[in-house]
Amino acid sequence: MANIESLLHGFTIAITFPHLFLMVIGVLLGILVGVLPGLGAPNGVSLLLPLTFGMQPVSAIILLSSMYWGALFGGSVTSILFNIPGEPSSVATTFDGYPMARDGRPSTALATAFGSAAFGALVGVVLITLLASWVAQVALAFGPAEYFAVYFLAFASFVGVGGTPPIKTLVSLAIGFAIAAIGIDTVSGSVRLTMGIDELVKGVNFVVAVMGLFGIGELLLAVEEEFHVKAVSSKVDWGEVGKTLIGLPRYGWTLLRSAAIGCWMGITPGGPTAASFMSYGIAKRLSRNREKFGYGAPEGIIAPETADHSAGTSALLPMLSLGIPGSATAAVMMGGLMIWGLNPGPMLFIDQKDFVWGLIASMYVSNIVAVVLVLLTVPIFAALMRIPFYIIAPLIFIICTVGAYSVSNSYLDVLLMFGFGVVGYLFKKTSYPLAPLVLAIVIGDKAEDAFRQAMLMSKGSLGIFFSNALVTCLVLGGFAFLLLPLVFRARRPREQDSMLDTHES
Amino acid sequence: MISQRAVELTAAALAGIFGMAVVVSSLDNGIGWSESGVDAGTFPFLIGIVIALGSAYNFARGVLLTYEIAVTAPALRRVAGLFIPAAIYIAAIPTLGMYVASGCYMFASLGLQKKQSIVRTVILSIATPVALYWVFERLFVVSLPHGALFAIFGL
User: Fold this and answer.
1) Pairwise CB contact (< 8 Å): B11 & A429
2) Quick check: pTM over 0.90?
3) Which of B51, B46, B41 is nearest to A182 (CA)?
4) Nearest to B40 among A192, A391, A460 (CB)
5) β A183-184/A191-192 pair status
6) Which secondary-structure segment (H or E) carries A93?
7) Residue A29 — left, alpha, or beta (φ > 0 → left; ψ -120 to 50 → alpha)?
8) What residues contact residue A227 under an 8 Å CB cut-off, 6+ apart?
9) Which of A42, A90, A210, A440 is deepest in the core (most CB within 10 A)?
């Protein structure tokens, strides 16, 4: 197996002292942003991004991806101990994690969460190991038309299965595309959509957008909801942890099903948040002891945590092999790849073998590092939550401001970030999804270029998108996703009773 | 108190205005097909149309909403309590510079707004800019704006 050989080579890159050190730093910073409400994985990674410009790409990606894993774990800590989701994707963990911890079993709750999270991550990485280079090989044969079709499919699946109102998702996506178009057009060289502001010629950096949309937006939401920290004991009982971990295989079926849901949602750009909710819902529907859900059922922790982490991990598969990120954080990392001078997509597997397999191998190692570190540091980070939020809030605001400024030493970026923050708050209040917006900012230009190159090849005929079986399937699949909400709506009257049932209980 | 309808309508209206601005602005680049392929304005033009039409739909949906509270009065006060000082902070950066502005912002938020003890306030207000200076200027050699105030003193 060539994959296994490449993976072993990857381990020789990942398991070196400097890289292990970067993993520890990345995971710790990740847990920090995961624990703090208002700072999440997408803007944590974008804050760190400017600091990686001087690094080797493989070291930089190991640092950033470790931060991502850390943030996924950190989000669960506050969900379980404080009933405050540190990350949107760990909201579903609060449903059963907090009740279990409150009933005097915080160690069991934490160990269940971390154990199933590690399992989910493992499934995601194994999937990447086995499939990524195969997908890349297929994608090597892609022309511009096929690429546009894949982008189209990805964006359409957001509208179809994103779980937010479809027209709002569409508007959110389109706004992202429009923002991506601001500045110099890569094909014709003409300046577009600057609206009379000369400095916008350089375009709007996605880091600035992420910092505002996720950072400031979440911060405003967090002060609005004014939570009272009612922590349960954060002491970790190691005997209990061991017993729980050994007992986890009893829930094998839930683990496998949740991992499958997570992988699917991660590869298609549904993202970890949608995955964890979906997995929780399905686990509840299929469980034999449904009445225990919401009062500390172990399945209620296993299902969202496994799906969350397998989605977060497998989101890197399409990013590496196709150049299409599967989540907002993966989009930020892909932006980083482009800044480091790498071209995300199938060519990576030929030109940058060390980078790709170093990253994949590091995912095995850093997830283990993350589980160990998060268990060891639970008391420390729990203590951090006792700092009053009115001290943390202005600090986070200052960090985001400085972060936005340092992207390109521009005050305009600070103003833009603030504007994006207001938009982020407004969109959160009105359930416009933010992930598609960020995704469109990062890959909008590439999608447009693919479209225009395809049109050049066909001399202006849309027929090129139906010129062979592959591209026709992709395009039709995209349209099917777009029409999905209409199908659901037509079916809804019959399903209304059962829908209400799941929400009420 | 702010109703969900008002929030929905504001979001839809802002998005719609942005969409129309994109449409108008893209006309400058030319839309349609020319010798060099698809014109630069075509894609933004179509995108702008999608935003405008989608927002019109969302606006109409918003009008039909039944009354529901989106933000209660105390919640709004808390949001304003973060938002207004933050806006002043950002506006002050070009004059005061990042360091002085950050220090003042911490001082104002903790000392004046939240009535923290003077010792705690002063320590945090000084520690913040010092930490920024150390991390950015020293560790990563990124220069943050020192501001017009410092320029007068020739720093």
Assistant:
1) yes
2) no
3) B41
4) A192
5) antiparallel
6) helix A91-102
7) alpha
8) A37, A82, A84, A389
9) A210
